[in-house]
Amino acid sequence: MPIQLPNLDDRTYSELVEEARRLIPTYAPEWTNHNPSDPGITLIELFASITEMLMYRVNRVTDANRLAFLKLLNGPSWEAPDQTDPLFKTKMADAVRETVSAFRESNRAVTREDFERSALKADATIARTRCLPRRNLESGNARAGEIDEPGHVSVVIVPAGQGNTPQPTRELMQKVAADLEPRRLLTTRVHVVGPTYVTIRVRLTAVLTPDAIEDRFRFSLPSAVQADLDGRTLSGELRSRFEAVGMTLSPQTTISVQTAQSRWLITDGMTLRSYTVRKEVEASRQQLNVYEDVGRDQVVKSLRQFMHPLSGGRDGQGWPFGRNVYVSDIYALLDTLPGIDVVTKTVDPNTKNALDEFIVGVGDRDRLQYNETGDLSAVEIRSHELVNADVVPDDITLVLPKGAEPVTTHE
């Protein structure tokens, strides 16, 4: 709905004549004939008529006025439409609409939302932004996210990309800083940085349902490669055996011994696929059978996805900046996976003690939060930080219910 223009002077012709007639005794007491036939009254009526026309024009915005306003708003370089152009009215309406639309777009960075919105628009490769007022994340202080720095504003940018810990390039940060420079308030110092990641490993035991598919049989290996498995060596022979059945292993592949000389776990860190190799007796001879570890892959991928900086979180928009990682969140997530019956703590086979669900680096142990009963409840994530979910298959233990036999499927 268009804005109604105000009536700048609503006096009518008769009101102007009457007002002037009332002022005669004050300014010309000797003038006593106020009849319409008097020449002086005739002049008053003439001037009232002219004044009324002028007031009518005051209440109207002419094309010349509009052009002057548009030139003032758009700058001296703005080219005005030609008034002799038959399409002048249409071009004028378009120019007004474009100018008003441009003013609706924020080009100043004052609030937190302003900085985040402007940084996100600075480059198409930026996926997420986070603004922290009164913080200087370039200070080099490990606790910079908690130190009050008046006049400073830090903007964290997360680029789109592969991997668990996307980081912006120096060129990208400089580009965003240059874009924010003319938008900031005069005394504000802006710092553009990449995110800080807190690396977390998850250590849990998942009890499968009796009908769950624990493994999927793929192929058998020659017994000669057992020495490579025992030595945790991805030899050329072992790699070629996988490639022969169309299962190429990346350079990030690792081998761990689950049970000495009888069970091994091969993990491809790039594809996040795990393969269990079991020594089994078939046709009166021992054979090394390779199975795809379906349940373990499902748990690892779900955990990594849940804590991913770009696609994690409950809404799938990325793990929120500064949100703690709670043990209860992990249990709730795994409880929704098909084939998972119960999730529990992993028990140390040597000490028989229950182990914490999260593993962090030595320098991050002060982040671990425990409840009144001594159980781990969360890992603290500070306001400018995200999570690097370094979930590895070796930390996930899958077991079948008591009395159940391993379920395998052969293709």
The helicity comes to: 25-40%
What is the straight-line distance between the termini?
A: 68 Å
Radius of gyration: 38 Å
| Topology pattern, helix = H, strand = E | HHHHHEEHEEEEHHEEEEHEHEEEEEEE
- Overall average pLDDT: 88
Low-confidence region ranges: 407-411
Number of helices: 10
Percent strand: 15-25%
Q: What does the overall shape look like?
A: elongated
Structural class: alpha+beta
Number of strands: 18
- The protein's oligomeric status is single chain
Biggest sheet, strands in spatial order?
A: 7-8-9-10-6-18
Largest sheet: 6 strands, mixed
Key structural traits:
6-stranded mixed sheet; 18 strands; 3-stranded mixed sheet; disordered C terminus
Task: Explain the overall architecture.
- With 411 residues, this protein is of the alpha+beta class.
- 29% of the residues lie in helices and 24% in strands.
- The chain has 10 helices and 18 strands.
- It has helices at residues 13-27, 39-58, 63-74, 88-104, 112-121, 170-180, 226-230, 236-244, 294-306, 327-335; strands at 126-133, 152-159, 189-193, 196-202, 204-208, 215-221, 253-259, 263-268, 273-282, 285-292, 325-326, 340-344, 358-359, 368-370, 376-379, 385-389, 396-399, 408-410.
- A 6-stranded mixed sheet has the order 7-8-9-10-6-18.
- Strand 7 and strand 8 form a beta hairpin.
- Helix 3 packs parallel to helix 4.
